[in-house]
């Protein structure tokens, strides 16, 4: 029995390696083949704050499917018609190549179970005035969405039936709090993070799959820097890996930091990063960890046309130290994702394009110039992206 289990695991690892290699083969076409396809357009995020902590990225191109200049069809973002051109989707949960959830402006939640060929509007009732910025999903039927904003605008909704019905499981009653992101360790345990209250980031916790929430004690959280906050830009300012580890990305202060907890948010340590900071519009916007030690941070300055040198960094020690990417993305990036089962391949997206790394985030090159706010890759090797003007796309060949 032991040898059978080892053989099965080896076969699964070999299959995963073959699939990842195939994905890399089509993703690493010459950069000259990357080009915007379609027409220019703009969209609005709706809740940008005057201090710049809520990025409003009103630019980018609308691209359709395309081919690289190599003469053969390569991997590309195939845009899926969501039927919601006026919505900006910053929340994205990719279950697999068939199923994905989107969360966006106007209290909008969409779901597809056929690879994006059709989308069902499963928005919670009476939510039109809310700004959904994050969503996590356990499958085609279970999802938790986060609405962001000051005071009661920050809320959590939960569904177990594919969005047919929703339960509001949390409504923020503190006018000083502004929740940015949520993340789950497993189907039961999850956290949400608010910008600092009384000088420290506030952590909300659930142990029943989002049915109920409570604020964790603040004494395990290091003091926040002056002006420090999280960015509700892509649902990736709070990320987990494994059963207990969680990381929090920050900006707006003198230094862009990443905070880490190894006990589900009870105690935290902070580490500086080389990502630009010192301004309300600058910092680490998104994190991705492929295990509890190897992670990538992306961000920069979200203001259109502003330079973002050193807009990416990597860690190999669980976030204790961060090193700048040797070749960073050319501009601000709002989201990042590892390709499933890969130790080297990752995608980063932002309003000016998509970048690919094949060396664990140390170097990046642009492979597409369309505008996206968020990106997620599922365990079956599929990757999805979403953004302004109702845009959703799946990586296809």
Written overview of the protein:
The protein has 397 residues and is mainly beta. The chain has one domain: YVTN repeat-like/Quinoprotein amine dehydrogenase (Methylamine Dehydrogenase, Chain H, 7 Propeller), CATH 2.130.10. The chain is built from one helix and 30 strands. The strands form seven sheets. Strands 8, 9, 10, 11, 12, 13, 14 and 15 form an eight-stranded antiparallel β-sheet that branches. A four-stranded antiparallel β-sheet has the order 3-30-29-28, with no helix packed on it. A four-stranded antiparallel β-sheet has the order 4-5-6-7, with no helix packed on it. The protein starts with a helix and ends with a strand. The N terminus is likely disordered.
Question: Main traits of this protein?
Answer:
7% helix; eight-stranded antiparallel β-sheet; four-stranded antiparallel β-sheet; globular; 397 residues; mainly beta; 1 helix; Methylamine Dehydrogenase, Chain H
Blueprint (SSEs and pairs):
Layout: H1 2-27, E1 38-40, E2 61-63, E3 76-81, E4 89-94, E5 100-104, E6 108-112, E7 120-121, E8 131-137, E9 143-150, E10 155-159, E11 167-171, E12 178-184, E13 190-197, E14 200-206, E15 214-215, E16 238-241, E17 245-249, E18 257-261, E19 269-272, E20 282-289, E21 295-301, E22 312-315, E23 323-324, E24 335-338, E25 346-350, E26 353-357, E27 365-368, E28 374-377, E29 383-386, E30 391-396
Antiparallel strand pairs: 1-2, 3-30, 4-5, 5-6, 6-7, 8-9, 9-10, 9-12, 10-11, 12-13, 13-14, 14-15, 16-17, 17-18, 18-19, 20-21, 21-22, 22-23, 24-25, 25-26, 26-27, 28-29, 29-30
């Amino acid at each position: 029995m032991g040898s059978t289990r080892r053989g099965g695991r080896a076969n699964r690892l070999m299959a995963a390696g073959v699939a990842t290699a195939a994905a890399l083969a089509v993703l690493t076409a010459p950069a000259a083949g990357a080009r915007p396809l379609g027409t220019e357009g703009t969209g609005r995020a709706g809740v940008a704050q005057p201090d710049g902590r809520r990025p409003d990225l009103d630019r980018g191109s609308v691209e359709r499917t395309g081919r690289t200049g190599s003469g053969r069809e390569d991997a590309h973002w195939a845009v899926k018609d969501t039927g919601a051109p006026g919505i900006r989707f910053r929340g994205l949960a990719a279950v697999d190549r068939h199923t994905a959830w989107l969360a966006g402006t106007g209290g909008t939640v969409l779901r597809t179970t056929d690879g994006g060929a059709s989308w069902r509007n499963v928005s919670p009732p009476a939510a039109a005035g809310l700004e959904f910025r994050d969503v996590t999903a356990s499958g085609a039927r279970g999802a938790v969405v986060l609405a962001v904003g000051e005071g009661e605008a920050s809320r959590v909704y939960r569904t177990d039936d594919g969005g047919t019905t929703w339960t509001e499981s949390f409504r923020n009653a503190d006018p000083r709090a502004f929740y940015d992101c949520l993340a789950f360790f497993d189907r039961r345990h999850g956290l949400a993070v608010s910008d600092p209250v009384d000088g420290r980031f506030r952590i909300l916790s659930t142990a029943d799959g989002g049915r109920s929430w409570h604020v964790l004690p603040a004494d395990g959280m290091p003091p926040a820097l002056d002006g420090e906050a999280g960015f509700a830009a892509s649902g990736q300012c709070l990320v987990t890996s494994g059963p207990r580890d969680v990381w929090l990305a920050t900006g707006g202060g003198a230094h862009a930091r990443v905070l880490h907890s190894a006990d589900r948010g009870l105690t935290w340590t902070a580490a500086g990063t080389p990502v630009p900071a010192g301004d309300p519009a600058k910092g680490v916007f998104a994190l991705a960890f492929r295990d509890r030690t190897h992670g990538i941070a992306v961000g920069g300055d979200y203001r259109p046309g502003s330079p973002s040198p050193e807009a990416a960094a990597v860690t190999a020690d669980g976030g204790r130290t961060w090193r700048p990417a040797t070749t960073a993305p050319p501009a601000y990036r709002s989201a990042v994702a590892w390709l499933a089962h890969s130790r080297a391949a990752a995608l980063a997206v932002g309003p000016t394009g998509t970048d690919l790394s094949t060396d664990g985030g140390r170097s990046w090159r642009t492979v597409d110039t369309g505008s996206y706010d968020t990106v997620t890759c599922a365990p079956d090797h599929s990757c999805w992206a979403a953004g302004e003007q109702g845009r959703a796309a799946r990586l296809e060949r």
